[in-house]
């Protein structure tokens, strides 16, 4: 299994990392800003709980110390009843009733700035006023430390205690106050619009655009005695980051390291193997043999495939160049001999034609004709070899039995005995009939040249391979055979032991090229006498004999 990553995988990972870096920074800052808001909300809830408890205790002392209240001012009838849903929660037996912070800048609505407290239409409740007066000094002293604005309202929404000069004014029209007097714990965000000058960097409220409001009901059983309303600006993200500047610098260095690692990873997986491949091709351009080889560490699957393809192409080109060089040398050698003979004969005829007898002139003319015929055979064989090397394989098919019988009938006229043993049924190979005929004819001509005109040739055809997907044709003759020394050379162009019989040494090379082009093969079989060649061809379709 190839575990080398794909190029698109590397690019995807790199792009995702690059995309994630700023997104992660934005997300972290947003989360941190919300955390600052919830931290401030938690502080206001804790302060509100203490103020509510202090007010409730002061209210109880004022009730115990004062004159007997009217019937409608009895403890069990004081205040306003809680809304049913909040009253049910209040009546549930529970030792602890924690109130977690829940504000989130990402999902909570930011409401407009609240209106200033309006003038109250009636005076506050006397008990509430006395209790508020008692806790107000504590509230103002705590504000110096907590920086929170704190107000306490009675059950009508009238301010009875405040860290500002707002006593006897009403907050009944504010949303958070109305909901708290119904028995609900409220936390919400409002716009912060300041008329003051820009505060210094050390200011907690510097640049903060929201203010947190927390309203808590003061409850006795299921009656609301009043409410505590607190507000404060949360710590600004810029000011918080300023205090964390050294940690942020450390984080920036970590991000820089991540970028460098991504760059290094990209270089190792992409740049380095590509440069190595370029260096190999440059060496190949300079003529260095064997310079291009598959990279040991390609980095990605595509570069591995490219490296293997380039290495294979380089080997093919080197082999082709060697083949062309050797081929050119063989061609020049094969052509040089008859051309030299023709030239010499022409020179002799030009110089001594008048002194020659008729028989001598005829002999020279026959030599010229023989050398010209040999050149013609060489040219034809070279054309056949060139066509075999560049043949385009199509969808043609050939009926094996018909082709074998036709070729055998034609060559029987040349004096050789041919016996066809066909056990493959109606076999059809993936090759044009004229191509298969050329292959068989070349092998029969080869047998006639080496075994003589009265040679006996046997052709046997059988199916074999997985699911009978391959056809094997064996062509054997009763000639002198091929020596062990020559067995490894017979498929080389221009190698022949029958040059005097007109052999060009290209017949078997043409056969091999044609078979290779059609995904077939040929090999020399070991034989006690004569020569035997085995051909393997892929079957196009095979049907059982009827």
Which terms summarize this structure?
546 residues, alpha+beta, Beta-Lactamase, Helix Hairpins, Heat Shock Protein 90, 3 domains, seven-stranded mixed beta sheet, rod-shaped
Report the top-level CATH class of the largest domain. Answer: Alpha Beta
Helix-strand topology string = HEHEEHEEEHEEEHHHHEHEEHEEHEE
The portion of residues assigned to helices is 40-55%
**CATH fold-level assignment of the largest domain:** Beta-Lactamase
The CATH homologous superfamily of the largest domain corresponds to PAS domain
Shape: rod-shaped
Nearest-integer average pLDDT: 79
Binned strand content: 15-25%
Characterize the largest beta sheet: strand count, sense, and whether it forms a barrel: 7 strands, mixed
Q: Report low-confidence residues grouped into runs of 5 or more.
A: 70-74, 201-207, 542-546
Q: Over all CA atoms, what is the radius of gyration?
A: 53 Å
Q: Total strand count, please?
A: 16
Topology of helices and strands:
Elements: H1 7-65, E1 80-81, H2 84-91, E2 110-111, E3 118-119, H3 126-146, E4 149-154, E5 159-162, E6 169-170, H4 175-181, E7 186-191, E8 210-220, E9 223-232, H5 237-243, H6 245-285, H7 301-352, H8 358-389, E10 398-399, H9 400-412, E11 417-422, E12 426-429, H10 433-451, E13 456-464, E14 470-477, H11 507-517, E15 521-525, E16 532-543
Parallel strand pairs: 2-7, 11-13
Antiparallel strand pairs: 1-9, 3-6, 4-5, 4-9, 7-8, 8-9, 10-12, 12-16, 13-14, 14-16, 15-16
């Amino acid at each position: 299994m190839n575990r080398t990553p794909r190029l698109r995988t590397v690019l995807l990972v790199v792009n995702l990392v690059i995309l994630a870096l700023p997104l992660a920074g934005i997300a972290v800052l947003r989360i941190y800003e919300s955390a600052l808001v919830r931290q401030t909300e938690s502080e206001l809830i804790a302060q509100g709980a203490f103020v509510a408890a202090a007010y409730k205790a002061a209210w109880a002392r004022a009730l115990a110390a004062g004159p007997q209240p009217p019937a409608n001012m009895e403890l069990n009838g004081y205040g306003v009843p809680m809304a049913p849903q909040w009253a049910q929660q209040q009546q549930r037996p529970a030792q602890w009733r924690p109130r977690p912070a829940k504000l989130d800048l990402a999902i909570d609505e930011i409401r407009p700035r609240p209106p200033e407290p309006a003038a109250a239409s009636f005076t506050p409740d006397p008990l509430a006023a006395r209790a508020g007066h008692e806790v107000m000094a504590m509230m103002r002293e705590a504000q110096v430390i907590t920086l929170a604005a704190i107000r306490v309202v009675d059950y009508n929404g009238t301010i009875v205690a405040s860290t500002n000069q707002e006593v006897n004014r009403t907050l009944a029209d504010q949303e958070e106050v109305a909901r708290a007097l119904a028995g609900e714990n409220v936390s919400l965000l409002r716009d912060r619009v300041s008329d003051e000058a820009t505060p210094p960097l050390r200011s907690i409220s510097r640049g903060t655009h929201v203010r947190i409001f927390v309203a808590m009901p003061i409850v006795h059983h299921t009656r609301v005695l009043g409410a505590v309303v607190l507000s404060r600006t949360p710590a600004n993200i810029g000011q918080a980051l300023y205090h964390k500047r050294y940690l942020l610098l450390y984080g920036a260095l970590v991000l820089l390291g991540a970028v460098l690692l991504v760059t290094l990873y990209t270089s190792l997986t992409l740049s380095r193997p590509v440069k190595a491949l370029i260096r190999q091709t440059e060496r190949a351009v300079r003529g260095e043999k064997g310079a291009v080889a598959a990279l040991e560490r390609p980095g990605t699957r595509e570069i591995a495939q490219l490296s293997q393809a380039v290495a294979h192409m380089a080997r093919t080109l080197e082999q082709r160049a060697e083949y062309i060089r050797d081929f050119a040398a063989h061609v020049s050698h094969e052509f040089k001999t008859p051309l030299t003979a023709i030239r010499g004969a022409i020179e002799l005829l030009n110089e001594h034609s008048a002194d020659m007898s008729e028989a001598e002139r005829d002999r020279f003319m026959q030599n010229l004709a023989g050398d010209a015929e040999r050149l013609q055979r060489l040219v034809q064989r070279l054309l056949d070899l060139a066509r075999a090397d560049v043949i385009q394989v199509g969808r043609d098919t050939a009926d094996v039995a018909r082709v074998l019988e036709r070729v055998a009938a034609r060559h029987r006229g040349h004096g050789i005995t041919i016996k066809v043993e066909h056990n493959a049924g109606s076999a059809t190979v993936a090759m044009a009939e004229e191509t298969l005929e050329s292959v068989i004819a070349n092998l029969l001509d080869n047998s006639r040249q080496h075994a003589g005109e009265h040679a006996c040739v046997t052709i046997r055809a059988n199916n074999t391979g997985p699911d009978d997907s391959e056809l094997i044709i064996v062509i054997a003759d009763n000639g002198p055979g091929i020596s062990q020394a020559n067995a490894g050379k017979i498929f080389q162009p221009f190698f022949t032991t029958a040059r005097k019989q007109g052999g060009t040494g290209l017949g078997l090379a043409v056969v091999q090229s044609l078979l290779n082009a059609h995904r077939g093969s040929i090999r020399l079989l070991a034989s006690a006498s004569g020569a035997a060649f085995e051909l393997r061809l892929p079957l196009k379709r095979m049907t059982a004999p009827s």
